[in-house]
Amino acid sequence: MANSSSIGLIKNTIIKELIKDETIVQAIGSSTVDSKTPEKLINTHIFNYDQDPYTIKEVNTFLTVQVHIPESYRMDNKIYVTPTLEIRIISHYRHMIVDNIPKVTDNRNDYLSRLIDKKFNGRSDLGIGIIRLSSNTEGSYQSDYLYRILTFVTTDLNNSLCNNSEEYI
Description:
- This protein has one domain: STM4215-like (2-Layer Sandwich).
- Helix content is 21%, strand content 28%.
- The strands form two sheets. The protein has a five-stranded mixed β-sheet. A two-stranded antiparallel sheet has the order 3-4.
- The protein has three helices and seven strands, in the order H-H-E-E-E-E-E-H-E-E.
- The longest helix has 15 residues, at 6-20.
- The protein is an alpha+beta fold.
């Protein structure tokens, strides 16, 4: 498999995991998508590419999933890559209060980051090696949108991902 072939496969794997998680689906807080049809979040609230918040017309929250390959290394005449997974949580400031889930006192971005961290940190069963959270930072896009960026690193890329023949989302 070519080194960059893993990018789409990793994104698809992560997005499938996100939409299978009812708590994450609910925490996104979509007014049009519920837990019975979580796949409708794809390309409306969950994107496999970076997204400019100012192109979004509704007041909502969305996630973007990016994969970076910042380095590769050679061992036994083979080239290995160590992908970095970046999940961005971007919310309009008027969508930061989690008013659709009782007893949640965190803001929406913090709550989603906690759920995503819990879901992926330390996992090794997704075919992309052991996933470790390396940073969790927050900030704002000018005045309307707030973000939290979770960056995960993998310790190795195992072969089970290369055997995944599913189509891209």
